[in-house]
Amino acid sequence: MQILTTINALDSYKIKGIKYEGYEEDDDGAILNTSESGTEYNIIRWLKHKYTLSLQFLTYTEIESIIKQFQTAKINEDKVTITKSKLTAKGYIDFKTTAGEPIFSFELSDLSPSQKTGTTYYSLSIPLIERVDMI
Fold this sequence. Notes:
This protein is α+β, with helices and mostly antiparallel strands. It contains three helices and nine strands. The strands form two sheets. Strands 1, 2, 5, 6, 7, 8 and 9 form a seven-stranded mixed sheet that branches. A two-stranded antiparallel sheet has the order 3-4.
């Protein structure tokens, strides 16, 4: 697990928000069982909740270091974490039943930086997936 120190070090106004996008169905997250009466039912072991983290007013060096941290995490096949208190203040919904920091997976190709028109600042949208164990 890699702690994203570059995002944790950002001022609060640079984190625009984190939006809940729903959950993703995962075939491995459910077990199909049959009861004694012969009816089938599923036991859900985990759900994957999707979020989009939006950052704004980033300088070129900040966005470069954020993307490098994501690349390093992907090379090491790590998941990433961001401080829960920073995310909760910006709209993060915690679905976990256990205490601890949220741990996210991501796809590197989904990172989408864009430059603000007429300024030297950048914005960045990061789709994140958090697996929440139900059992």
